[in-house]
Amino acid sequence: MRGSTTAPREARERIDAIRRRDPAALEAAARENLGPLLRAARAAGLTGDDAYDAVQAALLVFVEKADQFDGRASLRTWLFGILFRKVAERRRAFVREEAVDDIEAVVAARFDARGQWIRPPRAPDAELAAGLAMAALEECLERLPERRRTAFVLREVEQLDVDEVCNVLEVTRNNLGVLLFRARNALRECLESKGIEGSADVAL
Amino acid sequence: MLRCSEVVELLATDGWRHAPPARRLSLGLHLTMCRHCRAYRRALLRLGAAARRLYETVAVDPRQTERLVGAVRQAVERASSG
Predict the structure, then answer these.
(1) Are A141 and B44 in contact (CB < 8 Å)?
(2) Which member of A32, A53, A187, B74 has the greatest number of CB atoms within 10 A?
(3) φ and ψ at A117, to 5 degrees?
(4) pLDDT (tens digit per residue) in B9-62
(5) CA of A1, closest CA in chain B: separation in Å?
(6) Which of B13, B1, B2, B11 has its CA nearest to residue B38?
(7) If we measure between CA atoms, which residue out of A114, A106, A10 comes closest to residue A66?
(8) pTM for this predicted structure
């Protein structure tokens, strides 16, 4: 069993109630995970009704497979797994990562041959207002390929631990590392190109 | 001694979490000595915090909540009667 400390382990009784499809237990489970599921669907690139439809599809699978829930993954991680399989079914475009990517060259260009910074992270423009910074972040997030954004959101927003994200996205630790490296650096480069950088006291 | 580019990789991939103790130690040492890498790490932390704040604004529409919970309820009824 992969260790996890992020999501609370479901109490035994709750697991049993879910497994025997106790209506109240399933309804409560659905209710408390609607927000996280919707955010995850959005992270995967679905908008408007499509995001809600994916959440609904995932919840129906949840009810169908409730008897198979063994509590090894937290309920939330399990639901995320169902959701992303649904998303992948719907749009086959949950594409594989390219072997190399531009962002790697962009990051590499910040270092000299000995691996020392040539262009270190820039100090932020103090004049940029908080609201502007958030709008910029939203824009930069939208530009990210879906898989990278999803990995980033599961780690940073939902704060799943590394192995939980690997389980949900069905990738190895190395694959996840690549996704996160690309997502974080692309976001940082994007924000910096807009004059916003999170390294000092701007409201990011 | 780790290079700055290696520090960036360890931090951005979350690779440091599963790195052997010696490597984590050199990461810590490097960070105490290198302000650019400290700035980079801080940038990543702030990026995460900002994303959490941004996604907090994604709220489920109350009508959708009722619709979705209703769909779950119906599915449970179907499952138990079937």
Answers:
(1) no
(2) A187
(3) -60, 130
(4) 999 999 999 999 999 999 999 999 999 999 999 999 989 999 998 998 888 889
(5) 17
(6) B11
(7) A10
(8) 0.84
Q: Interface pTM (ipTM) of the complex?
A: 0.91
**Is A73 among the domain residues?**
yes
Out of A90, A117, A146, a domain closes at A90
A43 token code pair: 């992270």
> In angstroms, what is the C-alpha Rg of chain A?
19
Domains held by chain A: number:
2
Between A21, A173, A204, which is nearest B18 by CB? A173
Whichever domain contains A112, its CATH number is 1.10.10.10
Query: Collapsing DSSP states into helix, strand and coil, what is residue A195?
Result: coil
- Looking up tokens 């962002």 gives A103
Residue type, A179: L
CA distance A98 to chain B (A): 16
Asked if residues A80 and A168 have their Cβ atoms less than 8 Å apart, the reply is yes
Each residue of B58-71: b (16+ CB within 10 Å) or e? bebeeebbeebbeb
Query: What are the pLDDT digits (tens) for A2-61?
Result: 444 444 555 788 999 999 999 999 999 999 999 999 999 998 888 888 899 999 999 999
Distance CA B22, CA B28 (A): 10
Name the B residues in 40-79 with CB < 8 Å from any A CB.
40, 42-55, 58-61, 64-65, 67-69, 71-73, 75-77, 79
**Cross-chain Cβ contact B40/A120 below 8 Å:** yes
